[in-house]
Amino acid sequence: MSALIAPSVLASDFANLEKEVKMLNESQADWIHIDIMDGIFVPNISFGIPVTEAIKRHATKPLDVHLMIVQPEKYVEAFHKAGAEIISVHIEACAHLHRNIQQIKALGIKAGVAVNPHTPISALEDIIQDIDLVCLMSVNPGFGGQKFIERTYDKVKQLKNMIESSGSKALIEIDGGVNQNNAKALIAAGANVLVAGNFVFSAEKPKDIIAQLKTL
């Protein structure tokens, strides 16, 4: 079974966002990945609720919202109202992670936990059965176009073992530096969802790149 493909609009042309979203609608993409950055949790600011609402007006694919922000509990409901069908919060940003997951689940949508490169997989042991998605960062969060961290393969395998041994149904999503050189190996290691930003949007024919990823 091929992986789900979730192109990240962080790498899209913001001046032509409607056109970019319509391109994704017409492609074989499964989700649309939206990176929300606050300039505090990560050293960059991207966009927020109004832009998410604008994307939702044109999108026919589920919105996969990745909150790279402090105190995500303050904004979860607003992003759900803006159109999010999957919301991931960072384990490093949540003092009360179980409560945060319960908050997302109570909205009737999928709950994910994102994990920075330096955070061990073992930190997920007490939450893995409660979540729908683990977003493994394969670069340090904050900026697109970074080099893929090779240690990610081992972390995917560890996480896959944890999911299977616990009976969890969580999907493994890889976010950062995904391209033609590593996508197949990530899927072989156990990845279920590939987030691709620059690799898709910098291509001359983005829909073809998405189609190629779907064949792996």
From TrEMBL:
Any one Gene Ontology cellular component term annotated for this protein: cytoplasm
Keywords: Carbohydrate metabolism, Cobalt, Isomerase, Manganese, Metal-binding, Zinc
Domain of life: Bacteria
Documented EC number(s): 5.1.3.1
UniProt GO molecular function: D-ribulose-phosphate 3-epimerase activity; metal ion binding
Catalytic activity: D-ribulose 5-phosphate = D-xylulose 5-phosphate
InterPro entries in the record: Aldolase_TIM, Ribul_P_3_epim, Ribul_P_3_epim-like, RibuloseP-bd_barrel
Residues holding substrate: S8, H66, G142, F143, G144, G145, D175, G176, G177
The protein's annotated pathway: Carbohydrate degradation
Cofactor note: Binds 1 divalent metal cation per subunit.
Alphabetical GO biological process terms: pentose catabolic process; pentose-phosphate shunt
Record has Iron-sulfur as a keyword: no
Cofactor names: Zn(2+); a divalent metal cation; Mn(2+); Co(2+)
Record: residues binding a divalent metal cation: H33, D35, H66, D175
Role noted for this protein: Catalyzes the reversible epimerization of D-ribulose 5-phosphate to D-xylulose 5-phosphate.
Family, per entry: Belongs to the ribulose-phosphate 3-epimerase family.
NCBIfam families the UniProt entry points to: PRK05581.1-4, rpe
Listed name of the protein: Ribulose-phosphate 3-epimerase
Provenance organism: Chryseotalea sanaruensis
Gene label: rpe
